[in-house]
């Protein structure tokens, strides 16, 4: 097998990995650059011959999870190349696109956990792993008696983290690990768990009557974390209509207005007035009976918000729905560099709403990565998804440091 890192040896997000044999060639992940990546190429779409233009040279693309920096550019892939995505992860991505008014044009195929996909002489087996995106995957690639594990983004401090060791033991020894190294430029310490974060959120919620939570809508773990804290603080838990439609796609154990009696939704109908009837009956109508707006007048509440909801917060203030409030910012701090976040937080402060920063990483700490490598015992460790790839040299004697468009053969 030949492994080439087309992009991602010097940045977090936007990673593209090529793995091929004499008979087939696949790509793993095809997403957008994150906000702190200063160099943009052709509106952030890498031009790759045989993938985004010209005659087809790749047999398939595999996506590890539905974060935009891993899946966001798949519409640029040649239409004849199939894109494999985990089933629920793709459903979540579809909802995100529908709310953003984006039409997906690529040919996607569902993957199911631990069900192998064979592309010529390459076998790809997906394994569900803990991350801040629902049903994220590690991918085991096998061919010619060789095994390569692409970790995607992973961690062990979320609600599925307890299964990580068992998953790795099931995968067994491999020849190469291509690992995310997001934490390589951070202080080497254990991540706070989602359970610990929930306890901290509870301590914050006790002090306020109204709590707004700014988080990634696709971070299902974080929604569960905030629900647990809200329930303990005896607040009304309200998901905005976007998040309600995402949690609806997940297991029944995830808080959602349709399955939890104590979960409600906020529906800003004016925002969706220009949507067609199909959108309304698919995404709005099912939640009408759990509209929280009346209950919010009579109860303390926790409400998931997005930066586009600042006018909603201003109306809440005018109607007396905001008296003693805070906003919990629970996202990667890199987004604070974006103009829309700066503007939103400035206006939130002007409404007299306190801002509390409360977050835990969706990425494995260094000790977790070490533990993974100790279990898998690879001959080679290749770091990607990092701004400090040389740190891998300090951690692993068998690390191979690559630049973009460089590779190895095994």
| Tally of alpha and pi helices | 12
Helix content: 25-40%
Radius of gyration: 22 Å
Overall tally of domains? 2
* Helix/strand class: alpha/beta
- How many strands? 19
Would you identify the CATH H-level superfamily of the largest domain?
Answer: Ribonuclease Z/Hydroxyacylglutathione hydrolase-like
User: Between the first and last Cα atoms, what is the distance in angstroms?
Assistant: 5 Å
Model description:
This protein is an alpha/beta fold. 26% of the residues lie in helices and 23% in strands. The chain has 2 domains: 2-187 and 362-409, Metallo-beta-lactamase, Chain A, CATH 3.60.15.10; 194-357, 3-Layer(aba) Sandwich (Rossmann fold). It is built from 12 helices and 19 strands. The protein is globular, with a radius of gyration of 22 Å.
């Amino acid at each position: 097998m030949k492994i080439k890192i087309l992009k991602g040896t010097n940045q977090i997000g936007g990673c593209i990995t090529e793995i091929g044999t004499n008979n087939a060639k696949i790509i793993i992940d095809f997403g957008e650059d994150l906000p702190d990546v200063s160099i943009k190429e052709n509106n952030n779409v890498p031009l790759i011959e045989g993938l985004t233009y010209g005659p087809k040279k790749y047999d398939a693309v595999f996506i590890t999870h539905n974060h935009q920096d891993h899946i966001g550019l798949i519409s640029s892939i040649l239409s004849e190349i199939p894109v494999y995505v985990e089933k629920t992860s793709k459903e979540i991505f579809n909802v995100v696109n529908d709310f953003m008014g984006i039409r997906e044009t690529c040919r996607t195929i569902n993957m199911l956990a631990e069900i192998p996909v064979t592309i010529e002489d390459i076998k790809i087996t997906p394994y569900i792993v803990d991350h801040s995106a629902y049903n994220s995957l590690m991918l085991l690639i096998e061919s010619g008696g060789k095994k390569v594990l692409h970790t995607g983004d992973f961690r062990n401090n979320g609600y599925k983290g307890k299964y990580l060791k068992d998953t790795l033991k099931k995968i067994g020894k491999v020849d190469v690990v291509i690992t995310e190294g997001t934490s390589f430029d951070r202080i080497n310490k254990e991540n706070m768990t989602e359970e610990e974060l929930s306890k901290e959120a509870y301590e914050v919620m006790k002090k306020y009557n109204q709590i707004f939570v700014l988080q990634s809508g696709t971070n299902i773990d974080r929604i569960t974390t905030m629900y647990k804290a809200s329930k303990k603080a005896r607040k009304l838990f309200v998901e905005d209509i976007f998040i309600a439609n995402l949690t609806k796609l997940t297991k029944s154990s995830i808080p959602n207005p349709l399955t939890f009696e104590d979960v409600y939704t906020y529906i800003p109908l004016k925002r969706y007035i220009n949507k067609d009837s199909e959108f309304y009956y698919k995404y709005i109508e099912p939640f009408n009976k759990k509209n929280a707006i009346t209950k919010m007048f009579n109860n303390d509440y926790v409400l998931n918000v997005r930066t586009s909801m600042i006018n909603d917060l201003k109306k809440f203030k005018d109607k007396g729905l905001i008296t003693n409030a805070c906003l919990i910012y629970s996202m990667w701090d890199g987004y604070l560099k974006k103009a829309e976040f700066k503007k939103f937080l400035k206006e939130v402060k002007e409404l007299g709403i306190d801002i509390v920063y409360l977050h835990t990483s969706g990425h494995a700490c260094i000790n977790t990565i070490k533990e993974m490598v100790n279990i898998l015992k690879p001959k080679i460790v290749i770091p990607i998804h990092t701004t400090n790839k040389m740190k891998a040299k300090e951690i692993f004697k068998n690390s191979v440091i690559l630049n973009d468009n460089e590779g190895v053969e095994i």
